[in-house]
Amino acid sequence: MAQPAISVKDLSFSYGDTLAVDDISFDVAGGEVIGFLGPNGAGKSTVVKMLTGQLTPQNGSATLLGMDIVKERKQVQQEFGISFEFTNLYEQMSAVENLNLFAKLYKVPDFDAMNLLEKVGLGGREKEHVANYSKGMKQRLMMARALVSDPKMLFLDEPTDGLDPVSTETIHTLIRAATQQGTTVFLTTHDMVEADKLSDRVAFLNQGKIVALDTPARLKQRFGMRALKVEVELPNGDIEVREVTLDEDQTPQTVFDLLKNERILTVHSEEATLEDIFFDITGRGLQG
Ligand code: ATP
To answer: Which CATH superfamily is domain 6-221 in?
Structure first.
């Protein structure tokens, strides 16, 4: 990897006796989307808070775009956009006012708030107080806010949580457009479908540790089980579902026997989801 956009070495953080992040190390290339997946309390937010300067690591070090996250905190903070909880939205201001204020803070020349608000689907509602926005609208405004300075790096926490499918697709399109321009994206989510779709690589975080980090395809190859789901009609008219595991010595014979002896209604191929794999590795689900 050329100089990584994010480089993390032996990072740890405890809240009192609670070890939230336990000695993690990883690199992220420029323009890469890294998905951080893990159940509630796995330590995802704590990692983001350290990388973005809201918490100081108690152990280890990290650089963003070559800059030390502790020693060069102020410079680092100029380089990324973040959509993380709603705490930084001014509820008594409109969406346009929120974005303009932010653009001023980041000294963005010729900033066009309306253009950005149209892109996230908030055109027409831009003058209302943010306090009156729905959760999904705030979510989209957070995304717009993260994009104000056209940053080289984006930290996105559950960016489509609570959004309808059309708004979700809008946000996904914006994320892809940003990565095509070389923006690096650090995505934290419980949503394995979203992570699978958007991430170049995913990291599974469990109890503060990275337990796997790879491309979704390679994780599926390594841990997943490929199978066929075959619906057969029995002589009495009942329908039965048979699962045939692929890649085993007896698979060809099993498939042959099914084709020869049974009345087959449908055949579907199945592959493991990231949720299945997370469960295999950790013994727990992503929602728990
Ligand atoms: P979620 O998906 O719910 O946002 P997460 O993966 O982001 O979870 P963190 O918020 O980083 O997890 O929490 C990691 C651990 O640290 C948990 O055990 C949590 O209870 C604990 N923790 C987080 N913030 C604090 C805090 N301010 N004080 C004490 N403990 C905390």
So the answer is: P-loop containing nucleotide triphosphate hydrolases (3.40.50.300)
